[in-house]
Design a protein that fits this description.
Elements (H helix, E strand, L loop, with lengths): L31 H39 L5 E14 L4 E14 L6 E12 L2 E8 L2 E3 L3 E15 L3 H9 L2 E14 L6 E14 L8 E4 L4 E2 L1 E3 L5 E2 L3
Antiparallel strand pairs: 1-2, 1-9, 1-10, 2-6, 3-4, 3-5, 3-7, 7-8, 8-9, 8-11, 11-12
Main location: membrane
Subcellular location: Membrane
Keywords: Membrane, Transmembrane, Transmembrane helix
């Protein structure tokens, strides 16, 4: 019998197998937390879109309610009378005097009372402001016309175009401008507050030619004013 070869002894570290493990994919779990984060992001944007949609629907319903059912209209304005006493124009182009203005406020609405929260009045000669006042707040019922009388004083206010105002006075009249900022509230729930700019320009005041005048009055009687709402729409005066 032939001798069997003697097996060679194994020494050193065993060789690692390079054969791929079919279960290797199971060792890497799916990115669960990332998927969950993406879901929360989608839900957040869905909530924002839903909130915007609901707000738009509410705004649309509100506009229908105000426009069709309340038929909310802007107030109208005018000036009934202007009187200036102790009018003085100095050689340094400074003007002073005591003003008395009778304003007319009209509420044309048939279903909504108006509350005039604040009315700021500014009188100017051309671009120079010479007198200011604030009217007291008041309530006005529907289809009502209210007369508000205000007295205020201009104390030696400087006028840049002094030659022009002196020339006007020498011809017997001076043209002033009057503007108001009116904050109005509709006394109906959710109807809101809005601000109107009221222009009562070109108030021609009959004056004496002397340095210190007597009682100077508005030429032509009452005058209607033009109002503008926040989006620039013009509102007819009284």
């Amino acid at each position: 019998m032939a001798d069997q070869p003697t097996p060679t002894p194994v020494t050193g570290n065993p060789t690692l197998s390079t054969t791929s493990n079919p279960n290797t994919g199971a060792a890497n779990p799916p990115n669960g937390p990332q998927d969950e984060g993406m879901n929360w992001t989608n839900l957040f944007f869905l909530f924002i879109a839903l909130a915007i949609f609901i707000a738009s629907i509410c705004l649309f319903i509100y506009m229908i309610w105000v426009g069709l059912f309340l038929h909310l209209q802007d107030p109208q304005f005018g000036i009934n009378k202007v009187t200036i006493t102790n009018l003085s124009i100095s050689s340094y182009s400074q003007i002073s005097g005591d003003w008395e203005v009778e304003f007319i406020f009209r509420n044309p609405n048939t279903k909504v009372n108006l509350y005039y929260d604040q009315t700021e009045v500014d009188v100017s000669y051309k671009s120079d402001s010479i007198a200011q006042t604030i009217l007291p707040p008041f309530m006005q019922n529907t289809k009502n016309e209210t007369t508000i009388r205000a007295t205020f004083t201009s104390l030696m206010m400087y006028v840049h175009d002094g030659d022009s105002i002196k020339d006007e006075r020498s011809h017997g009249s001076i043209t002033f401008n009057l503007r108001m900022m009116v904050r109005v509230q509709a006394r109906v729930r959710w109807a809101g507050t809005w601000v109107l700019t009221v222009d009562c320009s070109k108030l021609k005041i009959l004056v004496s030619s002397g340095r210190n005048g007597g009682c100077e009055t508005l030429v032509g009687g009452s005058k209607k004013c033009t109002a503008f709402n926040a989006i620039g729409n013009e509102i007819d005066g009284i």
